[in-house]
Amino acid sequence: MRQHCLAAHAMKILCLTVFPDEFLALQRAIHHPWQETVTPSGTPYLATDYDGLQLAIVHLSAKSLANPQRLVSVGDYLSPQLIVMVGICRGNPAKVVLGDIIVAQKIFTLPTDSFTDSTYTLPQPWQGRLLGQSSAWQQQIQTPRPKSMLHQRGWLLHTLYDYELKPDHCPPPQAHPERRHHCPDWPLIFEQLLTEKLLTADPIRLTAQAIDLIRENHALHLATGFPHDPAVPAVHLGAIADMTNTDFPNDDDPFETQTHLFGLDIGSAAATTLATQMDCPAIVIKAVQSYGNPQQPLPFRAYATEAAAQFFLGFLRHLMPQIPLTCPRSP
What we know:
Blueprint: E1 2-7, E2 12-17, H1 20-29, E3 35-38, E4 44-50, E5 53-59, H2 62-66, H3 72-78, E6 82-91, E7 101-109, E8 120-121, H4 124-131, H5 149-165, H6 179-182, H7 186-195, E9 199-200, E10 205-206, H8 208-220, E11 235-242, E12 263-265, H9 268-278, E13 282-291, H10 301-317, E14 322-327
């Protein structure tokens, strides 16, 4: 294990992304001139100085994901003292909501028969620094947060409930002035509720099953009546599993069996493998774009990519002048 202190102004940070929109989100978030260049081995990257930090962004190729050892030449050339992977992931709905940030405390690689030993653990000093930063980064997200299906369903049902109770005082949901804000996917949500027999179509009325569900929501959500979406992303420290080499059937929810995981991603194992080779720490920052096995379209993807980039940028702004860098060896 290597341990030493570095002044923040001397740090070289290598940022890795898997998808093109993750790469663009980082490039746009950091409003500095970027220099396009290529390593001697032919890997293109962007470089800039950010308040004295030397940043390089590399978009990982499919070959690098399949064989992380190919990244060693990039690491040898750039000599990073910190490796950060920033992007999106699938989230466990029992632990996170769409748009939330997951800082990987442990990284596992699927498929595996055991989750007793992780392939990488984030050193404690970095855990505290990431979770202890100011929340100002949340206000820098420019992409509007989409309304989740859960929020839209709850709004439609509860607005119709209010209308049925007080038709002279409450507008029906289809004519409500806030419908476009709270239920932008009205046709889809309406069809779902019809299929689930929570509504009748003509006239639009709640079923007895829906009324029971609404009363349960009233008891669980005293302040709002139904599960509202949060205004800003929450930050979680938890386990992420890299599923680069794993295919889940389309109808499977991987979190039904991997209940301890916060997220599933692609590429985190490549980042931590390179960090181990370079004997430096790795940080994996992922924002939740979907649950389980994602289905198109993915309305949270743009929001999640920007949220992850802004969280990383907030971390850079508050990076302490000196912090011990440790890189424990994998077992």
